[in-house]
Amino acid sequence: MRDMFRMEAESQAQTLTAGLLALERDPDAVDQTEACMRAAHSFKGAARIVGLAAGASVAHAMEDCFVAVQQGRIKLRQRQTDLLLQGVDLLLRIAKTPEAEVARWDAEGKAEIDAFLAALAEVLENKGDSGEAVRETTAEPVQDDAGSP
């Protein structure tokens, strides 16, 4: 099951990367925003199936950003696109983690994940739109549908 998840993760990461690069060229490309939202949603579901809460949490926060773009609540600019591309890299690292080391994301990787989630939360609050760098500090993590980070 984990091998199938890794293949799915690679596929969704390619979709996310291609979509984000297209959105970088044309921020109003609705089809690309939709493709990215669906890829993040698919990754979230697949991560939950294999018990990767960290991956599901990151993908869920990314999905929320794409939904906010679709709803016109935020615009993707260079900083936001770069942050989301960092999220794709993070998702791939989580997906490629050997099963025996998954607990590492709950311990060692927690600070990195929390910092990423906090940065995405700022994007959702439109705090990342100014010329200031999106701060990367820990904050309350974004909650998923089940109420867990």
Task: Describe this protein's structure.
There is one protein chain. This protein is mainly α. Helices cover 67% and strands 0% of the residues. Helix 1 packs antiparallel against helix 4 and helix 4 packs antiparallel against helix 6. The two termini are 23 Å apart. The C terminus is likely disordered.
Assembly type of the chains comes to single chain
Main beta sheet, described? none
Identify the overall geometry: globular
- Spans where pLDDT lies below 50 across 5 or more residues: 130-149
Taken in chain order, the helices and strands follow as HHHHHH
Per DSSP, what share of the residues sits in E-state strands of 2 or more residues? under 5%
According to DSSP, the number of beta strands is 0
Structural class of the secondary elements? mainly alpha
Rg is 14 Å
| Amino-to-carboxy terminus distance | 23 Å
Count of helical stretches: 6
What is the average per-residue confidence, as pLDDT, rounded to a whole number?
84
Topology overview:
Layout lengths: L1 H24 L4 H20 L3 H18 L7 H18 L7 H5 L2 H15 L25
Helix pairs in contact: 1-2, 1-4, 2-3, 3-4, 3-6, 4-6
What distinguishing features does this structure have?
149 residues, mainly alpha
Q: What is the compact description of this entry?
A:
This protein is mainly alpha-helical and 149 residues long. The protein is built from 6 helices and no strands.
